[in-house]
Amino acid sequence: MRPSRATMPLSRLLPPLILGGAGFSHQIISNPTSAQALQVLKRAFQLGLRAIDTSAYYHPSEMLLGDALAHPDIASNYTRDQYILMTKVGRITATQFDYSPAWVRNSVMRSLERLRSEYLDVVFCHDVEFVPEEEVLEAVRVLLEMVDEGHIKYVGISGYRIDTLTRIARRVQEKYSRPLDVVQNWAQLTLQNDRLVQEGLAAFREAGVSCVCSSSPLAIGLLRSNGVPVGDLGDFHPAPQGLRCAAKEAADYVAARGESLAALALRYSILRAQSISASNFRVAIITGITSIAELEENLDTARQVLRVTGGQRWLWTADDAAPAELGQPKIEEYEALVKSVQDILGVWKDYCFPSPGDGWDVARKRPVDTRL
């Protein structure tokens, strides 16, 4: 049964931690499978992690997640209103975008079919800096229509460029006399790059946005001991060699002190989001997960700074409660490690990846033709 038009702000519903569906894509791992998705999702639901963010671009994530959600091990134990599904439209491949009204509508309906659901909780316009802003505004209009039709509950935009995201958020509020429900930004609420806080959050609040999702707390796998992930599509990571070397040095430094850079980075992002969030404005973290071992490792880290009730639901803490749960000696140790890592990063601290970069023609939505 489709829901009626949402009246409650998404910030009241979205948990502080969200499972990222890119972990079931060819971009991140080799040979993603239905069995992998089912194992991870089943365990995630058992542990109370029941919000999922994916995209049609993260092929074949939507299909694998749909298979898992329809499996008796999940379908017989969880009703649709017990979990949150978020996906994206507009980006088709690394170099192909379609923000036309017909494609946006087709993409949403296809996602519903793939995810085996009668409605989607959130739909984002994907990587908005790659296309003309007028096309994004038109795509948002179509998504708002689909909210009225009951296919979608909340509408958002996603991308890397904070200036683009804030500008579009303001334009949506002006054009449609209502704000976006949510904005998603990636890899800019991390140990390496904290620009989302510095440049984005106040502007989003001014544009009426009540919820921000920060994905890639490990900067797409940069902030871990074993280097950037390489899936079936090869090494797509945008980090230059200098940043990769600095991240490796930081990982080695943290490991020598009995810690994991990945755990430290995830803890940093969650704590940072918690310190910013309030009752009417939330910052949630999306963490990519590819295996049960990775899931449990991430949730062990999250439990240090988030509360969970009876294994059923991740809860927001009071604004200043999460750091105190670590205990003062642990806080001091954590803060010292954070400072050391950021010192090692040096000139790479707050470095931004080029997006879309000089090689992309935004007006034509395609790579620049260097033959001209």
Automatic annotation (TrEMBL):
<protein>
    <recommendedName>
        <fullName>NADP-dependent oxidoreductase domain-containing protein</fullName>
    </recommendedName>
</protein>
<keyword id="KW-0560">Oxidoreductase</keyword>
<dbReference type="GO" id="GO:0005829">
    <property type="term" value="C:cytosol"/>
</dbReference>
<dbReference type="InterPro" id="IPR036812">
    <property type="entry name" value="NAD(P)_OxRdtase_dom_sf"/>
</dbReference>
<dbReference type="GO" id="GO:0070485">
    <property type="term" value="P:dehydro-D-arabinono-1,4-lactone biosynthetic process"/>
</dbReference>
<dbReference type="InterPro" id="IPR023210">
    <property type="entry name" value="NADP_OxRdtase_dom"/>
</dbReference>
<dbReference type="InterPro" id="IPR020471">
    <property type="entry name" value="AKR"/>
</dbReference>
<feature type="domain" description="NADP-dependent oxidoreductase">
    <location>
        <begin position="16"/>
        <end position="302"/>
    </location>
</feature>
<dbReference type="Pfam" id="PF00248">
    <property type="entry name" value="Aldo_ket_red"/>
</dbReference>
<dbReference type="GO" id="GO:0045290">
    <property type="term" value="F:D-arabinose 1-dehydrogenase [NAD(P)+] activity"/>
</dbReference>
